[in-house]
Amino acid sequence: MGTLDESCIDRLSCLPDSVLSHILSFLPTRYAIRTSILSTRWRYLYTSVTTLDFYDHHDSSDSFMNSVDRVLFFHDMTCLERFRLRCGGVKTSAYRICGWISFALRRCVQELDLEMNIGDPRDILPASLFMNKTLVKLALHVSNFVMTIPTKVCFPSLKTLHLEYVDFVDEDSIRRLFSGCLVLEEFVMLLNELHNMNVINISNPSLKRLTIKYDGEYGVDNHLNIVIDAPSLVDFKLYDIRAESYSLVKLHSLVNAHLENLFFLVNSNLAEIATNLLKGISNVQALYITPDILRLFTLFNKPQSLFHNLVLLEIGDGECMYWDEIDLTAFLASSPILETLIFDTRGYCYCLSEAIPSCLLSHLKVIEMYSSEHEMDLVESYLQLVGYFLKNASGLEKLKIQMNLQPIQQFEIAKQLLLLPRESKKCQIEIV
Fold first, then answer.
1. What number is the average pLDDT over the span 297-301?
2. pLDDT tens string 120-176
3. Best CA proximity match to 241, nearest among 215, 278, 214
4. How far apart are CA 314 and CA 348, in angstroms?
5. Which residues, including other chains, have CB under 8 Å from residue 306's CB and lie 6 or more apart?
6. 394, 395, 398, 399: CA torsion to nearest 10
7. CB atoms within 10 A of CB 21
8. CB proximity list for 288: less than 8 A, separation 6 or greater
9. What are 84's strand-pairing partners?
10. Helix axis angle, 407-418 to 379-392, nearest 10°
11. pLDDT tens, 371-394?
């Protein structure tokens, strides 16, 4: 007899049930359920998955809630790796959502991911959530939700916490929350309107990664005061925040900082804000900033060695709201061991002082300049910038220039750039 064609062999059915259930755990739950019609063997495999992922897919609220209830009723695993719930039905019951979350907590869930936009989210979180021993990751994206933090909070295993569009009852709530996160390593906070808080106080000794971003309307000033005390913090990102004061203390371990489009209040003391913000991140090794922050620095903060550990500086695209000229060399003078400089030249007037920053004479090895717009009228200032760096950066190894111009225009400018004198004999110029 001839051998059976290998392409006809059902290799999937040869796998043990535990492996098949593990594979189903990677599917949204509604698709895992559909496999139950394949054969008798597959009929109840979905009840043994370790991940439950529910999404209403614009189903009616009643239909969605009933389907979730049925899945949880038949589920027979004692432990869950992840429970994810995404629903936007205005009529979805907060009481039933609370019951589903309680189910996941009883199953020793490790990751809880909730994304909801329902009519009344006040009672969605069970009290047992805040004394949970197994949660490793908690993500809450709940519109119009004011979270009440109980007096006692204990998350002995929680390492990642994401809060999006969540407000708190009072300013002390966030302090109580962090006091109970004993091993927290990552915190992401996406803000909308904060009606009950003027101070965001983040104090945690184990926190390593912190991101705060504002995503609301700027018509109303929240007058936020941001206080951060995190001695283990390694990565810090701040986006689109409108704050009237910063207090960044004990950031001794900071390696990366990303500050983008910080809209300062018009009546605030800009000098004090800039000083406190930049001194708070002075240990950083890699820094991304937008021109508005660089401009504040050059006006108010010019110590000769503020960023004594900085080796990478990137100046991205952003709105410079306050002044036109930006003294780039003032910042470079405060970064004595800077090795790599990347910056956007789009529409910004970078003025260069006669005093040559020490990093150009000894440490700066790589410069990347790019423009995100067609700007033939700024070619002269562009050539000035390039000429300054080639003339003074004695240790420069690579100068990469990206121009958003027509090929013939780019060719003509490239010829001029290649004729500029270079202090560093080993500098390679790359034009793209």
1. 61
2. 777 889 999 999 999 999 999 988 888 889 999 999 999 999 999 888 888 889 999
3. 214
4. 14
5. 278, 279, 282, 334, 335
6. -30
7. 20
8. 257, 258, 259, 260, 314, 315, 316
9. 53, 113
10. 30
11. 755 555 566 777 888 888 999 999
Distance in angstroms (rounded) separating the CA atoms of residues 379 and 224: 41
Residue 379 CB neighbour total at 10 angstroms = 15
pLDDT, tens digit, 9 for 90 and up, residues 6-62: 556 666 666 676 777 777 777 777 777 777 666 666 766 777 788 888 888 766 778
| Contact criterion met (CB below 8 Å) for 59 and 91 | no
Dihedral (CA of 415, 417, 420, 426) sign = negative
Q: How many CB atoms lie within 10 A of CB 189?
A: 18
% the chain with pLDDT above 90: 34
Tokens of 91: 């009529």
Spell out the residues 6+ positions from residue 382 whose beta carbon is closer than 8 angstroms to its own: 345, 369, 371, 375, 403, 413
Question: Is 162 strand, coil or helix?
Answer: strand
Mean pLDDT of the chain: 83
Q: Which stretches within 120-238 are classed as H helix? A: 171-179
**Tokens (6 digits) for 355:** 């005093």
Residues linked to residue 256 through DSSP beta bridges, in sequence order: 235, 286
Please tell me the pTM assigned to this model: 0.85
Q: Distance (Å, rounded) from C-alpha 431 to C-alpha 91?
A: 58
Strand pairing partners for 343?
A: 315, 369
Report d(CA 203, CA 248) in Å as an integer.
10
DSSP 3-state assignment of 294?
A: helix
User: For 240-288, what is each residue's pLDDT tens digit?
Assistant: 887 888 899 999 999 999 998 876 655 567 777 777 888 899 999 999 9
Model confidence at 219, pLDDT cuts 50, 70, 90, reads: very low
Distance (Å, whole) CA 13 – CA 275: 65
| CA atoms of 39 and 43, how far apart (whole Å) | 6
Backbone angles phi and psi of 277, in degrees to 5: -65, -50
Helices (H), 160-229: 171-179
Query: Which residues have C-beta within 8 Å of that of residue 156, sequence separation ≥ 6?
Result: 133, 182, 183
DSSP 73: H
pLDDT at res. 248? 93
Amino acid identity at 24: L
3-state secondary structure at position 60: coil
